Amino acid sequence: MDEILERGGLEVLVEAAREREDWFCAAGAVRGMCAAGEFGRAWTVVEPFAGSGWRPAVRVGIDVLLRWNHVEQALELAHPGGQQKSGDVWRDYAEALVRTGRVDDAIGVLVPFLRDRRVLRGLVEMTDGQGRDGRVLEVLAPVAEDFRRDPMRCGVGDLWEVLPAQARVLERSGRVDEAVRLLGADVAARRYGPENTVEFYAELLARQGRIEELRDLATGTRKSTAAVRYVKALESLGRAGEAESYLRGLIASRYPGWYVGALVDLLIRQGRFDDAIEAGRHTFDDLYDGNLLQSTIVLLAEQGQYDKAIALTEGCGPEFLAESEAWLRSNRWWLMGEAGRAREAITEIEALPAAEVDDRELTIAWLLAQDGRVEQAIARLRPVPGKRAATDLAELLIRQTCFAEAVAVIPGVAAQREEERRFWTDRPDGTEGEGSNR
User: Fold this and answer.
1) For residues 62 and 45, what is the distance between their CA atoms, to the nearest angstrom?
2) Domain tally, the chain
3) Which range marks the domain in which residue 396 is found?
């Protein structure tokens, strides 16, 4: 839908939203009409969806009404009603209040729900730049202190985000030393949470240029997130050589698996592609989580180093090849297509038995399109069943500006649900359906 909109197919999306009752078409049409200032027309498209109470559509409807300057109608749509207990719904209402300038009202609405981490995150985000940081800190303080006192018994055991959230508001209000002191104490007390508080503390120190404190954090906690952030901070200061030496020292002394990936990333960012490959090569046949082959291939491709990436798909050890041959082939053909070697890749595929190549027709069609043979790719995809083939076909039709046909080939919601049901239905022998382990 995004591609249709970008290529000028707005009216096709409007018609599809009406005829197919397709939400994605509706959302795309609304976005296009709002960009053109046609808010009234956008509302007529989104209103039937928003009227169902479905939250994604309600959010879009609120946005349209606010941009149309229908403030009271927007707030009425956003208001959850007296029986609504979901914090997410009240967050939507609070965001609408902030957009109408009623920031204090928005904060008041959210206070009863601050032990929901999504609401807490929303409070911090929506009040940024609103001049009410003092009030936000006031309502965050008791939740943060409860958490610090006893995370497992205060009723907010999953609310680890309150610690970095409090520090973030302190930082943006100019109270940096206090933010560093509080979050540093949390790290020292190992109040880490499911997503490590160390990472947020490292980011805070890096933003404030406190490089030595960041190094102490990385060394003292032995947390890879802090070490990686320290390396990037050094790199941003033009001290890449120092960053490399630091990582190599860690790799040589302890926990090498944590830092080899960071070294590969650093060397690739510095354009030292061969050095990066050598740094990670000893992991490339690893059958476990330490294997850096995929990440190295992707990083090289992002830098346009396709031939080097393709070379990494060759020469793997027999044990790794036995486990990963299909994956290596698909990566190889993707890289060849990006590198302008699509015809060579198609030749390789067609030389193999069809049963040995997953998604054979889809892969060949993609390579044909990469080679500029879009009509041949379209012809190849037309007889292929399934949602993925339909999506690929639609994308190619959009390139040919066949917008209405592109929409038509995408299965409707009911058809997609039926395909999903069949996909997961157990076979008669009791085993799960094809693709169930994907």
Assistant:
1) 13
2) 1
3) 351-426
